[in-house]
Amino acid sequence: MENSFTVNLTPLQVFLSLAFQIWMIVFPIILIRKVNYLIAIIQDQFDPDKETP
Q1: Cβ neighbours for 17, distance < 8 A, ≥ 6 positions apart
Q2: Would you tell me how many other CB atoms lie within 10 Å of the CB of residue 24?
Q3: Residue 50: DSSP 8-state
Q4: What span, in angstroms and rounded, lies between the C-alpha atoms of 17 and 25?
């Protein structure tokens, strides 16, 4: 006995699945860049080497 089945996908489903897979790669990159930017801002505020006038 051979178990096989077919899945019919609409073009919209293919597009959505492709967009989701791309988003799963792009979103962490955006998130890491934003966190690094916020860390840089916080470090600049609390940097002891800089003097505030």
Answers
A1: 9
A2: 9
A3: S
A4: 13
Q: How many helices (H) and strands (E) does the chain have?
A: 1, 0
pLDDT digits (tens, 9 = 90+) for 30-46: 999 999 999 999 999 98
User: Residue 52 — pLDDT band, cuts 50, 70, 90?
Assistant: low
Tokens 């597009």, located at residue: 15
- pLDDT value for 53: 54
The total number of residues shown for the chain amounts to 53
Q: Under DSSP, is residue 28 helix (H, G, I), strand (E, B) or coil?
A: helix
The amino acid sitting at 3 is N
Number of other CB atoms surrounding residue 53 within 10 Å: 2
